[in-house]
Amino acid sequence: MPKKIENVGCPYCGVCCDDLVVTVSDDGKKILEVENACAIGNQIFHHATGSERVTRPRLRQPDGTYKEISYDEAIDYAARVLYNAKKPLIYGFGSTNCEGMAAAAKVAEKAGAVLDNCASICHGSSFLAIFDNGYPSCTLGETKNRADVVVYWGANPAHAHPRHMSRYSIFPRGFFTGKGQKSRKIIVVDPRHTDTAQVADIYLQVKQGHDYELFNAFRTALRGHEIPEEVAGIKREKILEVAEIMKKARFGTIFYGMGLCHSDGRNHNVDIAISLTRDLNDYTKWTIMAMRGHYNIAGPGVVWSWQYGFPYCLDLTKDVAHMNPGETSSIDLAMRDEVDAFFNVATDAAAHFPIEAVKHLRKHPWITIDPNICMASEISDLHIPVGIVGVEVPGIVYRMDNVPIQYRKVIDPPEGVISDEELFERIYKRLCELEAEEAAKGKAKTTPVGVHAEE
Amino acid sequence: MANKITLNMITQRSVEEGVAMEKGKTTPEYFEACSIIEMHDDDVKALGLVPNQLVRVTSECGSVVVKVVKGRQGLYPGLAFMPQGVWANQIVPPRTQATGEPQYSGFPVTVEPANGERRKSALELVQGAVGMWRGDQ
Ligand code: SF4
């Protein structure tokens, strides 16, 4: 009898849907059906048992082809790369569990590496703004139960977080929002008339790259001052109308995304959005939330803050951790050629970094740790496959509002394939051994008998 | 009819890109979902193009051949869109304004008809860029 497993978490986007129902075959090896997931979530589960999975580490040969090696050999290779590098970069972690992130941090600390996650090229701007200005936020349940005004600013959940609107922000009937969509006003701000804009009550087609001016106009209008006839492509009357709606809200949430983080101004677009949220709290209750991308990209921020005090761009090359994103971010380090080994973990830097940065990083050893074949695995020296979190490996993940969720395992990983956590624990152990071997050798060389007595 | 126009490029997600990426970055689905550009009708006309023709898109740091498609999500004239991924990142400027974040959205590109050129696969683009492309074997 096929088995139905309930309350399964989806390992794709920051909505972290935990209401999936997955049907697995008799032998527990094949995923037959996935209920409640969106098209993307569906694909992840069905892809997991596809025939194209890599089940053994693969090492690049002199002729350019890959040869399968054992996990022990792969772990030794990875440890030696770290051991020999002066400043290795360990990057990724959007798509693994917190247990894997903690184990990787241990390795990074031991290796004296730079440790960074995908926030670096995603909501890192948000962190910078939050450091400056705070984060008046809430959980998604509060938006669901209370929000009568919802703003999506530079975010397109219809494409990037497909069930966000139906689970939390627009359609659900919450405790104080019993009429669902009818109890809420939806405002979308985006230069494109996106599919999200289709469901909005009010759509503001802001000129790309001019969000800062528009935020400024809102703040000025809210304080009762004059604003120009048109700002960032939006007419004064429209700005005043929306400002009034915001002021009269009972509870509002601004969800924002890459439209702010990736455009000119980066963190300043976010910090003025936070300032607007704070201003609005003089009149009523407003909150703001970053539309975090991967299902556990909030995880490294939480785990590493707890371990080192910094969420990303951690320079662990010295005795104390240091963070300064313009200096210690993956892209900036790559472009200045400041790292000499690259670990791509649970991400695909070769597809998602600007190609110039990839070219710089590829001058040095490149190791990919990922369940799947991706662009990073195809330009690596070594590709180590691992189990898929949420499908084959259980663990803790942090939703976009930093609520931790326990993900389940629905099937076994392919025979012999290990988890990120186990892999990093074993690399750590191997690093310690290499260090001990070197120390034993070093001692014999530098302190011959009798030297101490003469000092 | 111009033979080259300058547009403001944004690179963002699409649900097709998300589904295709989970299917695999070497699949035909990923190729079709990501090796495209969406432009406003006026800009397509200004170039004398019709949908489904190939264009060469060039930024301050690179160049890539992609297909013009009519997007469902409306742009204003002068604004262009490419789904995030391998093709977009051939032209995304790596400058970060000292924040760590590349200029993924809001950078100038020129678009011109790609005469006789073809779209390259994801593997050919990425492996080609780092000197590892060994041809279609
Ligand atoms: S909305 Fe996100 S978390 Fe939910 S099923 Fe879709 S991809 Fe998965």
Give a written overview of the molecule.
The complex is a heterodimer of chains A (455) and B (137). With 455 residues, chain A is an alpha/beta fold. Chain A has 2 domains: 58-122 and 295-441, Rossmann fold (3-Layer(aba) Sandwich), CATH 3.40.50; 124-290, 3-Layer(aba) Sandwich (Dimethylsulfoxide Reductase, domain 2). Chain A contains 20 helices and 21 strands. A 9-stranded mixed beta sheet of chain A has the order 5-4-19-18-17-6-7-15-16. In chain A, strands 10-9-8-13-14 form a 5-stranded parallel beta sheet. In chain A, strand 6, helix 3 (98-111) and strand 7 (114-117) form a beta-alpha-beta unit. In chain A, helix 2 packs across helix 19, helix 3 (98-111) runs parallel beside helix 19 (420-446) and helix 4 packs across helix 12. Mean pLDDT of chain A is 96; it is low at 451-455. In chain B, 22% of the residues lie in helices and 29% in strands. Chain B has 137 residues and is of the alpha/beta class. The radius of gyration of chain B is 15 Å and the shape is globular. The interface between A and B is large, with 66 and 51 residues. Bound molecules: iron/sulfur cluster. Chain A: This is Formylmethanofuran dehydrogenase, subunit B. Chain A: Keywords: Oxidoreductase. Chain A: GO terms for molecular function: formylmethanofuran dehydrogenase activity; NADH dehydrogenase activity. Chain A: It holds the Pfam family Molybdopterin.
